[in-house]
Specification:
The structure holds two protein chains of two kinds. By secondary structure, chain A is an alpha/beta fold. Helices cover 23% and strands 28% of the residues of chain A. In chain B, strands 1-3-2-4-5 form a five-stranded mixed β-sheet, covered by helices on one side. The longest helix of chain B has 13 residues. The chains are: A alpha/beta, B alpha/beta.
Chain lengths: 309, 117
Amino acid sequence: MENTNYDVIILGGGPAGLTAGMYLARAKSKVLIIDNGMIGGQTILTHEIANYPGIESTSGFMLANTMKKQAESFGCEIKSNVKVETLNLDSKQKTVRLNNNQIYTSKAIILATGGRSRMLGVKGEKQFKGMGISYCATCDGDFFTGKEIIVVGGGNSALEEAVSLTKYASKVTIIHQFDHFQGFQHAIDEANANQKIDFIMNAKITEFKGESGLQEVEIEHILTGKKEIRKIDGAFIFIGYEAQTEILHDTKIKLNDWKEILVDLNMQTNIEGVYAAGDSLAKRYRQITTAVADGTIAALSSLEYIHRN
Amino acid sequence: MVLPTNLKHFATAQELTEVIKEKENVMVIAGRMGPMCIPVYEVMKTLEESGKYNHVEFRDMLFDSPETNIIRNLPECRSFMGLPFVVYFKNGKVAKATTSIQNMDMVKAILDTEFAA
């Protein structure tokens, strides 16, 4: 069994975790980043990034890869596709045990576990994932050429992806649970102006149905409670993100009602020596730039904590 | 035409046919360099390098190559509408096929069931 001590362990290898890793390793701290998936977080799920300052246009994969290389070049150690089994945050020495029984300890911890696409959680959703239900328009759009599809959601992603899917689909129906959209006005205007798009407001999906693939969807009209079955060929779901904080549920870390981590201006959680950064925080705006800023602050705060203690 | 990944590739349908004839356990992913596919390539590379799956041959194939029709046209993939398509061949026959993104646990569960060493 391996037992290795670090100055700081960072849970999560998205932009927040990688930035924190870069700053800490460059300051000659011994740092380990642990991620349960691929390094890069949700950035790798983004086809094109055009608003990251200093970079005209790149793919999320390329940007994440560059961040990873930068962190490693400063001496940051990275372990991807490993799962954290238990966390001990209460004592001065923090302990992380992985599912392969490897144990790592550190003086400070940065929680940068990020977020993930929210699922509807209705009957049939898991069954038809990849067989009519998709979460990526640019990946799967061409499977729906000439077909009638629905898009679920009312934010910028739903509106923009609905417009992009009209390149393939013969008809796109946006289904949204409220009577108004949450997206920016330009995204709403673009969707409204598209002849192939229509809207069902104040409605929610209650079931996906089909045999070998998705064929029908059950829609509940929220104001009347009436349900209707609609024949469809595909469904794209863009209903926002949720924080990945399951690993913290058995700890004393304070979370809000949405299970997001609460921090102060220094990215300090309610536990000494434990900091947090990125999309798992309770905050309004979730962008790569905000994650990078959070990661920087968390790194500098944890450095200060280590020097103080 | 092959994918720019760190995995070994199948460039032609003939290569795939030969390997599944020679090797007992073959995992093939047909995808693009997109957000749903890249994490699965990474999972496969991690498993390949772990040394725990030396009895499995890990390969990829460019989804948009006409040669990949050998995967796209499999009866097991007929209803698939999400990238990547992943097919697990046992003794030359399809043991399992999946569509859309899969994580490490999902892939390991299939490998440990279908290709138990």
